[in-house]
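User: Here's a protein and a ligand (magnesium ion). What would the complex look like?
Assistant: Let me lay out the input and then the predicted complex.
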Amino acid sequence: MPVNKLIISLLKDLSKVSQETSNKVVREKVSKLMCSVLEADGCAVYLHHSDKKGLTLSKEDSFLKGLKFADSWQHSEWTLLSSPQYIHEPEQAKAFTEDISCQHCLILPLQLEEQTLGIVLVGWSKSSPVDDLSPEDYQILQVITPRLSDIFYIYPLLSHLTQREKDLATLYHKAVKDFEDNKKQISLELHDEVGQVLTSILLQLKLLQNSNDLEYIKGRLGGLHHITLETLEEVRRISQNLRPHLLEKLGLKAAVEVHVNEYIQTTGIDVELRTHNLGERVSEALENIVYRAVQEGLTNVARHSGANKVVISLTIKGNNLFLQILDNGKGMEKNHKDGIGLLGIKERVSRAQGKFWLINKPGLGLTINVLLPLA
Ligand SMILES: Nc1ncnc2c1ncn2[C@@H]1O[C@H](COP(=O)(O)OP(=O)(O)OP(=O)(O)O)[C@@H](O)[C@H]1O
Ligand SMILES: [Mg+2]
């Protein structure tokens, strides 16, 4: 085949190369294509790197049918080429490719905005079908080189950027999700910790409003002062680590006992705490869920039920931890408004693969049930 037909056929084939497939596949395919269309014994792509020694050309991709090209070499006058060059001289070709069997080679520069970024090197160990390149052939080669620059340089960059964009999108979605989860968590913590104490303060203030006994008022004010200081401490703690300190220090049973005693004192509601089999400390996560549920259940009783008696059962049954909070109040009204207290318990329990259910007996009271697998 005449030289120019050969080169035009190469141009046609290169134009069909799509950037859709993986870069490596495409680049290997192109090296192979160069060898087959130009009947060459090797094709390799070298890209410029600047390092301590100066500019180095390193082999990126290659398809070698017998020839062995150097992996890398220092910057030389050849690598500065800005237009295609064919080397007829076997001595020069051997020196250039660092393969003694190489007789001829074609160097196609990879250029981006007039800057040479690397080269595509094609070599022959015997005769080469492009031995007689005319000025027109060189012109066609000039058209081929930007196409090669796209394939070997621009497409990899694009693919790298696309992958980076995907990674950033994944990270962004994760960050947004984490942020939302944390917000939910903080909202629950504020509700459970600060909300409980403020409710207690409110109830005590109500008692004070109805009293004319100065001594009694003074005594209660001392208590309120104390609770307010505790609330401040609580807020500080929430902002520090968002974990209930009582629970951390004492463990579930003792922490619930302390909370129940404080509750009895501040609300005047009788609470019976029944625990069974609660020997060893259960996992931190479960302790947290149960403690929060007790806090919320008791607060709800004081706020909504009108009950004067609560029974809390906390037992380990088989592989489950069972919590029940039963009150003798009016029960949940049909048209009650949903808050985030019960929803919070429900969410925490479901995250721990547990079960949460209410038993509502209008006029007789409400029972909260929580079953949590220990494992
Ligand atoms: N022990 C109870 N007895 C009667 N009604 C209750 C009881 N517990 C909850 N409720 C009803 O269920 C509703 C929802 O309770 P939930 O704890 O989710 O929200 P809340 O207490 O109103 O507000 P918060 O978000 O501050 O907890 C309450 O508004 C109340 O009407
Ligand atoms: Mg509530």
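Summary: The domain at 3-166 is CATH 3.30.450.40 (Beta-Lactamase).
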